[in-house]
Write a structure and sequence with these properties.
about 325 residues, alpha/beta, 8-stranded mixed beta sheet, 6-stranded mixed beta sheet
């Protein structure tokens, strides 16, 4: 580790938090009066003092983790919830925290918006608007449908909560069979039978070795004909070629906020596959995230000043 360089003894005695740009500094620094707050990133070279916690930028930050190697930084705070690939990129000795509580509500909001949009035919109506076509016909809607949510963590539970007023039959599925305050959670063993009955299947599991390729040809084949697949998790959970094949025949429809590959090349067949709607990984990208990131950083700062362990630790580098 690089030795800390202290402009003043008072600065050295304080906890130091580094922020990635001046805009975030201007917003967040007044909220952290008991902390030495600086603007710094590894592109600036060695930090001027020991960094107790550095806030990463939002988009693409995990790809630059290796640049923290050799830097006098104790911990990194992500602005993202997912942490796939971090373990292989994070330099030894650095703790990594994810952003629990920042994106769950917004990601679930998008998932429910996609469900309503697809079930009420918004893409078709928009196309008809451009062509000046008045085509009034019945759509499946959401009320009375069965929605299977694969994943009962933060995002999955938020989707379930937001669907509650829409009079749908919501079934959550996770690794193990259990009950919580929201009711029953079915195990993955029950998934094949549930897929045959589901009108909508929402994917809200983190990417792991276990979930990579989970939605493959057999998964799609087991889905009810005409059912809607919604993925707001990670693109690699869905076999893209299998989805193109299944949607091209009309067997399934899909609304995707994430794809594999990502970004999706402009000539990729998924763009033009019938029954598929794509948004460019915007699940958490709303103005609501800034106040939630601030809340995470205030709590982390409080913990550091109090000598308590950091929250939201995914990888403990100590």
């Amino acid at each position: 580790m690089i030795a800390a360089r202290c402009p003043t003894q008072e600065t050295c005695a304080m906890i130091t938090i580094a922020l990635p740009d001046q805009h975030i500094h201007d917003r967040l620094a007044p909220q952290l009066p008991d902390v030495n707050v600086i603007v710094w990133g590894p592109a600036d070279g060695a930090p001027p003092v020991h960094i107790d916690l550095a806030l990463l930028g939002y988009l693409g930050a995990s790809g630059g983790l290796a640049s923290f190697a050799g830097m006098d930084v104790a911990a990194l705070q992500s602005q993202s919830l997912g942490y796939d690939g971090v373990e292989t990129r994070l330099p030894a000795g650095i703790t990594y925290c994810n952003a629990i509580g920042v994106h769950e509500a917004s990601t679930a909001e998008l998932a429910v918006g996609m469900i309503i949009s697809e079930q009420r035919g918004f893409p078709q109506h928009f196309a008809h608007q451009q062509a000046g076509i008045w085509d009034q016909h019945e759509q499946p809607g959401v009320a009375g449908t069965t929605v299977v949510i694969v994943g009962a963590g933060g995002v999955g539970n938020q989707i379930a909560d937001k669907l509650a007023p829409f009079d749908a039959n919501v079934v959550r599925v996770a690794r193990t069979n259990r009950s919580d305050a929201r009711g029953a959670v079915q195990s993955m063993d029950a998934l094949p039978a549930l897929l045959a009955k589901a009108d909508i299947v929402a994917i809200a599991v983190p990417l792991s070795d276990e979930t990579t390729g989970l939605v493959d040809a057999s998964f799609l084949e087991a889905m009810k004909p005409g059912a809607l697949l919604v993925n707001v998790s990670r693109g690699k959970i869905v076999d893209t070629d299998a989805l193109v094949a299944a949607a091209s025949t009309g067997h399934v429809r899909a609304a995707l906020d994430v794809t594999e590959p990502e970004p999706l090349p402009s000539n990729h067949p998924l763009w033009s596959t019938p029954g598929v709607t794509i948004t460019p990984h915007i699940g958490g990208a709303t103005s609501a995230m800034h106040a939630r990131v601030d809340a995470v950083m205030r709590e982390q700062a409080r913990r550091l000043v109090a000598g308590e362990p950091l929250a939201y630790v995914v990888i403990d580098g100590r």
